Amino acid sequence: MPRNGLAAAFAATAVVLLGLACTAAAAAVTLQTGRSLIPVGGGSPVLYNATRDTAITTQYIDAWNNMNGITYLWGSTAPDFTYGLGEASPYNPAEKFRTLLRFDDAHSYVPADAVVQSAELTVTFINYNFDPVLVQACFMTRPWAYQGGPSYKTVGWAFSGWDGSASVPWTQPGAWADCSPNVNISFVLPSNGAYGYVSQTIALDPASVQAWLPSNGSANYGLLFRAVNGSVSIVSSQWQKDAPALRRPALSIAFSTDPADAPAPAAYPVTLGTVSRTWWVDPTGDDALNSGHSDSPFKTPAKAVFEAWPGDKIYLKSGAYPGALNILRSNITLQSAPGNWAVVSSPTNDPQQAVNVITLRPGANYGVIQDLEITGGFSYGISFISSTVEGPSHWTISNVRIHNTGSSSIKLSDKAANIIFSNCDI
Ligand SMILES: *[C@@H]1O[C@H](CO)[C@@H](O)[C@H](O)[C@H]1NC(C)=O
Ligand SMILES: *[C@@H]1O[C@H](CO)[C@@H](O)[C@H](O)[C@H]1NC(C)=O
Ligand SMILES: *[C@@H]1O[C@H](CO)[C@@H](O)[C@H](O)[C@H]1NC(C)=O
Ligand SMILES: *[C@@H]1O[C@H](CO)[C@@H](O)[C@H](O)[C@H]1NC(C)=O
Ligand SMILES: *[C@@H]1O[C@H](CO)[C@@H](O)[C@H](O)[C@H]1NC(C)=O
Fold it and tell me: Which keywords does the record carry (predicted)?
């Protein structure tokens, strides 16, 4: 774009923003902690490049930690904080570990008079089990958070030192007496072999998130997680080992200062499950430090393909990206982000590392590749590879331009059935 065009574009943006300032504004924010804990014994918090630095408490629930959120400060030099869900306590096998998650200062990021239109929570679990595990969560109705020292009185959960009458004995699995009956969160967490990590996104009830905001968050009691029929781990807000921004919990809130934008009230009770996620990729992004949210994009499509689960979308901002992508999971959409145009390329002279620009593996079905330019590859632009029993089936390839490949643009194999090409230039 010529310089003048750029200047004109900025001027137009400014006008739009002024227009918004005069009326009501819709906005979105992703809350994620960029802070490592203050090291044991004191010192400055270590900052890294996260989406948004906010305070998030993840609290491990077991009898020996007095139900007091004390783990917020414990062992802060360890690199890999994960908390258990579902595992039996070594001190009392009848007790099952649970974890509480609270975005402590959500109210600082959303104006008190705004309406929450939608909210999306991303949490990473680790499931090395062979089987999937049923995970549930709820909105807490009682305070539990660590409040600056052993202050058992603030804990609504029954524990050995709790003298209140509320709450079921915490040794009971679940302790749902402290949960809002309005919203149950329930989903089956897939296993992910030796890699373990499974990032899940849950669309939260907007009104329940709204209730976290008034009076400086005084009724923000967070969410309780439990595993029902197996044991898994949840990655805490203190996670420091690798890709902290990707693994730590994140909450995205879309809000508006126009009361007319309030969503229709939900018909309670509602049961919420996981929703698909959009992973953002930008040539200026970062695979190691960023979270894949729109304001914290990855750098390569390969990283997004690796993290995406069935139903997820991968949005590529305009630019050129390396190919040699291997899609192994079903129901993945790969495309240029709306209003953008991305080019995915591989060299034509590397039969080891870049046979195809995009390889679709057997069992990866119902995917979509659209609005994309694909160039190069020693052999093919898109190769559908079949095993003896199955191929990648039910793919839709639309508005895709494939050119300058080493061999053909597309290679279909015998079991790659029900593939639709529309509006492609190949
Ligand atoms: C964060 O970003 C800045 C500027 O791009 C960079 O200098 C710094 O090294 C980054 N921090 C980490 C922990 O990589
Ligand atoms: C747990 O329950 C879920 C949903 O009912 C099921 O898919 C999963 O296989 C179960 N896992 C185990 C370990 O029993
Ligand atoms: C919220 O906190 C601010 C700053 O501490 C204080 O001035 C204000 O009165 C508080 N508002 C409410 C509703 O508690
Ligand atoms: C939520 O789950 C609890 C425990 O399984 C159950 O007692 C309650 O009825 C459920 N509420 C809704 C709204 O499904
Ligand atoms: C993929 O989508 C198809 C069609 O909507 C659906 O039948 C299938 O269960 C989905 N598979 C996965 C793994 O999500």
Answer: Signal
- 134 in contact with ligand 2, CB cutoff 6 A: yes
Ligand nearest to the CA of 216: 3
- How many Å lie between the centroid of ligand 4 and the Cα of residue 224? 13
* Per-block mean pLDDT, blocks of 10 residues, the chain (426 long): 34 31 66 56 48 59 47 42 74 71 85 91 91 93 53 36 42 63 95 88 96 90 88 82 82 92 94 95 90 90 95 98 97 98 96 94 97 97 95 96 95 92 93
Domain coordinates in residue numbering, the chain: 24-272, 276-422
- Which phi and psi (to 5°) does residue 329 adopt? -105, 155
pTM of the entire predicted model = 0.77
The amino acid that residue 278 corresponds to is T
Distance CA 396, CA 66 (A): 54
Residue 96 in contact with residue 88, Cβ under 8 Å? yes
Q: Evaluate whether 324 touches 348 at the Cβ level (below 8 Å).
A: no
198 in helix, strand or coil? strand
**Ligand 2 in reach of 131 Cβ (< 6 A):** yes
Tell me the two tokens of residue 338.
């709306």
Q: Which residues contact 1 (CB under 8 A, 6 or more apart)?
A: 9
Computed from CA positions of residues 39, 108, 205, 337, in that sequence, does the dihedral angle turn out positive or negative? negative
Number of DSSP helices (H) and strands (E) in the chain, helices first: 5, 25
What CATH class does 276-422 carry? mainly beta
Ligand 3 atom nearest to CA at 112: 13
